[in-house]
Amino acid sequence: MTSAALTGSALRTRTVDGLAIRHVDTGEQPGPTLLMTSPWPESLLAFRRIWPRLAPLGRLVAVDLP
User: Fold this and answer.
1) CA distances from 42 to 15, 31, 57 (A)
2) Element containing residue 54 per DSSP (H, E)
3) 65 vs 55: CA distance, rounded Å
4) Which residues on neighbouring strands pair with residue 16, listed in sequence order?
5) pLDDT tens for residues 11-61?
6) pTM (2 d.p.)
7) How far apart are CA 49 and CA 65, in angstroms?
């Protein structure tokens, strides 16, 4: 997946307790922060159709659960 699939965002990976956690974040935006966890067995791509509609509401953070 590329971050282009989730407009206005950057695909990142962080290591937490030895696990690589992939996440996408639009960065600081006015409004509330919406945290989205990917539904099993999907990935961040599950949000690609709703991402552009939610983006105007505030900061979006989506996390791939390990």
Assistant:
1) 20, 27, 24
2) helix 51-54
3) 21
4) 19
5) 889 999 999 998 998 888 889 999 998 777 788 888 888 888 998 999 999
6) 0.77
7) 19
